[in-house]
Amino acid sequence: MKLITFLQKEDYHMGVLTDHGVVDIAAAHTALSTRTGRMEVPVTVRQLLDGGEDALNQLRIFVNELPEGEVNPSWLKQEDELAFGPCVTDPSKIICIGLNYRRHAEETGMAIPEYPILFNKFNNTLTGHGSEVPLPRTSQKVDYEAELGIVIGRTAKYVTEEEALDYVFGYCAANDLSARDLQMRTSQWLAGKSCDKFSPIGPYLVTADEVADPNQLDIQCTVNGELRQNSNTSDMIFNCKQIVSYVSQCMTLSPGDIILTGTPEGVVMGYPPEEQVYLKAGDVVTVQIEKLGAITNTMISE
Fold first, then answer.
1. Contact between 82 and 6 (Cβ < 8 Å)
2. In b/e form, how buried is each residue of 107-140, taking b as 16+ CB within 10 angstroms?
């Protein structure tokens, strides 16, 4: 199932992508209440995540039983008309993994880490597909980073690697934008990672059953149509089940928490200094991941 968060009248709505368009679940539930008898259905991503497997099953039943053939129902939207929000709007944590692709470590000249390198971002960095991302006035070196996002679906603490993916709700494409000059000022990366709208995620939150193995996905990034990153999640140093298990040894993971799993080679920082051209206003950046879709954002001056 592909879930979409979109903005309507200043509120975020949850949509489900179908062959006929995007179903606005709240609107469909209201419009069809006389037929459904007000059956229990999660109408927001937060309700869905908090409700666990039962809520997901309720949503699947509701969508599968929607009447076909109705002309222009009020609850059916067209994807290209939507104002996308971040596919998860309110995670309690955004945990990121640094230096997690072998060839990316090689291009930066850094040693392969012995343990996952953890850092964090905040909710101010979240934005959705199609939004504009302001380039900070304090940085001249903003870089793109195509990443696979993991969205947690169950409370996880001290989980084993073997069971770790059972705690995953789904996956999304992400761009872990980084202001390299701010990032490298100190040994702590926070300043360069947490600028406003520096974590576009989406366009979809794709349930885990549609992905199967998250470490066998092609991943690309283009800037103005030029291919900059082209890899596969199989190049991760620490794979998804290892990451979820490791983070759960350090802290409790909650439904809706997001883990950004690192970026492959091809970032601007990995080029020779004389070839480094960082993002500028007007640049259009697209991150595409197999089975998860493509998220595109335009850089603008702040």
1. yes
2. beeeeeeeebbebebebebbbbbbbebebbeebe
Location of structure tokens 């222009």: 72
The two structure tokens encoding residue 56 = 């997901």
What DSSP state is assigned to residue 189? -
> pLDDT tens digits, residue range 37-69?
567 899 999 999 999 999 999 999 999 988 876
Judge if pTM exceeds 0.85. yes
Residue with the two structure tokens 């900059």: 228
Peptide bond into 214 cis (omega under 30): no
Backbone angles phi, psi at 116, to 5 degrees: -60, 135
What is the SS3 assignment for 182? helix
pLDDT given at position 178: 97
Lowest mean pLDDT among 68-82, 104-118, 220-234, 250-264: 68-82
Q: What is each CA distance from 111 to 14, 98, 147, 226, in whole angstroms? A: 42, 12, 20, 29
Helix (H) or strand (E) holding 164: helix 161-164
Which residues make Cβ contacts (< 8 Å) with residue 70, sequence separation at least 6? Answer: 76
Q: How far is CA 182 from CA 140, 177, 191, in A?
A: 9, 12, 6
CA dihedral 246, 260, 86, 208 (to 10 degrees): -60
- Residue 273, both tokens: 């200094």
Residue pLDDT, tens place only, 75-85: 999 999 999 99
